Amino acid sequence: MGIKFSHQFNGAFIMFVVLQSFLVESRHVKLEPPHNQEQGHRKSNGTSDDIAPSTLDGLYSSKINYNLYGGKWYKSPVTYGFDSTSPMPSGLNYEDVIYVIDEAFQKWQAVVPEFAFQRIYPGEDADITILFTTVSTEYYGYSYYPPDGRLHLDIDHTYWSIESYPAWNEHDLLSGAMHEIGHTLGLMHTSNRDAVMYPTLDYGTIKRELSQEDIDRIQSLYYDEY
């Protein structure tokens, strides 16, 4: 009986680990008021506390394979859309949010044209489904690797900005969306603070261009043969 129970427990534990690997949460850093006009946010300190717990074992290294837990999309075009029940962030209208999300997808398509992204409605029928919803206070969003494709952005305690420069207490929507889209395409976090796929996004900052590392990783995932 003890041996049978042990096998069942081990099987359940392995299944838990496998399912957990498909979810990736993305943090913002602790918020503090600006001390002067030049310092509008508190930068993350680079410790393990800044890394989402579900990816502590998956930090990117140039010496390891780029392939990730969730695989990749094996189709073209890849569709995306908003869940029909999704509200919009306070102070932002639907058209402006759609414009920013479209731009975020185009940033990734520029380096992997085969994505051929298409936005559809209702989003429930899309490969990547976007929803503004309440997320844990530690995070501004979370996403799932392919073929799940769910992308959730916080609407409760995160103040999203679509301005050229977000305020000291705001998060840039384009930067956050680009990061979460990267997960839905199959990329996990990186320890490179300059990359879009770094797990934290500082208040009042922008990260709207893919780093060379981001480009290398996504192209390796979709173009390299293994």
From TrEMBL:
Residues 69-224 form the Peptidase metallopeptidase domain. Residues 1-26 form the signal peptide. Keywords: Hydrolase, Metal-binding, Protease, Signal, Zinc. InterPro entries: MetalloPept_cat_dom_sf (IPR024079), Pept_M10_metallopeptidase (IPR001818), Pept_M10A (IPR021190), Peptidase_Metallo (IPR006026). Residues 33-52 are annotated as: Disordered. Pfam families: Peptidase_M10. The keyword Hydrolase applies. Gene3D superfamilies: Collagenase (Catalytic Domain). This is Peptidase metallopeptidase domain-containing protein. It comes from Hibiscus sabdariffa (roselle).
